[in-house]
Amino acid sequence: MILVNNPGSWAHIHPPLRHAVWHGLTPADLVFPFFLFIVGVAVSLSFSRRMDAGAGRADLVRKIVSRSVIIFFLGLFLNGYPFGIPLNSSMAADFSLSSISAVFEDLRVPGVLQRIALCYLLAGLTVVFTRRTRDRALIAVGFLVLYELLMRLPLVDGWGSGSFALTDNFARWADLGLLGENHLYKIGEVAFDPEGLVSTLPAAATTMLGFFAGEFIRGSRPLVEKLRWLGTWGAGVAIGGLVLCRLEPVNKQLWTVSYVLLTGGLAMMTLAASSWVMDVRKWRTGTLPMVVFGSNPLVVFVGSGLLARTLGLMRVTGVDGQSVSVNRWLYQEVFAKAAGPLNGSFLFALAVVLFWLGVLWVLYRRKIFIKI
Predict the structure, then answer these.
(1) Span 88-129, pLDDT tens digits
(2) Both 215 and 295 in a single domain?
(3) Does residue 18 sit within a domain?
(4) Domain co-membership, 96 together with 180
(5) What is the reported pTM?
């Protein structure tokens, strides 16, 4: 996420690090569903450990709700930062108390952390209030069925009815009606949010896929056998997504069912392969940076977002005498000059990743793990 979200220039990005414009799939489009998938795996592992330690249903529900609320409001904080506080001379010249209140009038409500919070909430409550795998699977399928019904039934004139286009899909209609245009992300001039309410339903199904994978891995079969089956099932699920894409496009921003199956299957295969490499073959050389990032994921996601926004608003004078953001100056004067516009943009993003690896490494060595 950090590598994809922090290029030196949005005009110069290597194709694998670009999201699909609308329909389609790129490597960058795998990051978010893989993250939600592994959240589901973590739900399986952590909930079982808590229940073994004596935690009751009420304890788990309180933890699920409180964690979801905190993550959701952290997302809102990221969307609103710096809340009208002037970080450059232009902002300072126009600053007044109304600058702060104006932020909330146009504050984007959905977001990446907000989606993670809602998916964790839906998956967590599903797990807590059901005990049988069949019931949990029915609820996960129910998320997908409800999404399909909302997207395909002629519920409103001129919207939906099976449209997966940007302008007239039901997900956009619902977000416009419930949240309002001012509180949504914009693709060009079109108010549409890729982390909207309706598309959170299939995203929760992605999280449940991870939960089922985690439950299977916790089973009593030999690990190699479990990984073989997990990889096989993953291939089958991914093939199912490819077959379904003839009827429904693969689309991250709408989080279509074909996207759920394709990315979920690929996530299962990736988890099986990773576990085989590290847990069966014991090939762990070079994996410590991943452990370091995984030890404080919320710190690095929120911190990198705040830093990028701050450096994007702070201004310096460029060599041509024009005022540019600190981010832009670093890209133009350091990375682009050293490696050209395209590779310089990539090196800028890589430098951001390495910077945060250094920050997290210090926390890791000092055993500082910030959890909620």
Answers:
(1) 766 666 667 777 778 888 899 999 999 999 999 999 999 999
(2) no
(3) no
(4) yes
(5) 0.93
